[in-house]
Prior knowledge:
Number of strands: 7
Helix content: 40-55%
CATH architecture: 3-Layer(aba) Sandwich
Shape: globular
Amino acid sequence: MQQQTNYSNELSGKIALVTGGTKGAGKAIAERLKAAGATVVITARNKPDQADPDLYFVPADLSKRGAADSVAKATLERYGRLDILINNLGGSETPAGGFAALNDEHWESTISTNLLAPVRLDRAFLPQMLENGNGVIIHIASIQGRLPLYDATLPYAAAKAGLINYSKGLAKEVTSKGLRVLTVSPGWIKTENVKYFLERIARSSNSSIEEAQQSVIAALGGIPYGRPAEPEEVAELVGFLASPRAKYLSGSEFVIDGGTIPTI
């Protein structure tokens, strides 16, 4: 007789933090962890459109110096520890036009958001995690770390490549001390920000939204699955990796892209 396992409370008693947790994939991840029984803290620059009393919101702009320490202080003062850290915050607001359209401010702000923010937040929570001898850190990177789109998101791609490398190095340092560090690299996700991203491309290329979408798919080399990922699909992978079922996994990158990356 096959044994049925109930995963609904597998994170019961765990304290989790999701950055960028008010929208898109971050929101879906926060809800997935909550559904598994975790107590969830979310942080973002702006509060959620609809407040959820079961998600403790800490406002912060993690691209700024000092913000990570403030988030860590608020979390640890309220709960005493953190067990699961999901560094989901990320995004690109750089203009299209290739390297010549990008100045130092574009590069610095993008790297601060996509690479330095998770580095600073890890640094703020790691001492407590190491003292407790357990914890899970998951960095949400991107397939652009391997498959950069030069026209509009080159700084973002470079920052995510750095995040993947950093995540691997951190795993080598802390896995023997009881912590697990993992990377999830999604392809194109169907979020609210996709609309604005496509609008920027359409304006710069004098094309329609549909043509802009096809240009992104073409730049990615196509999506064999035929569509972008839903935020909940990414959240399901993260929920598994954060759970005890994935207890032997550390230092690995997990790509969820519908088959987009064409190489092994």
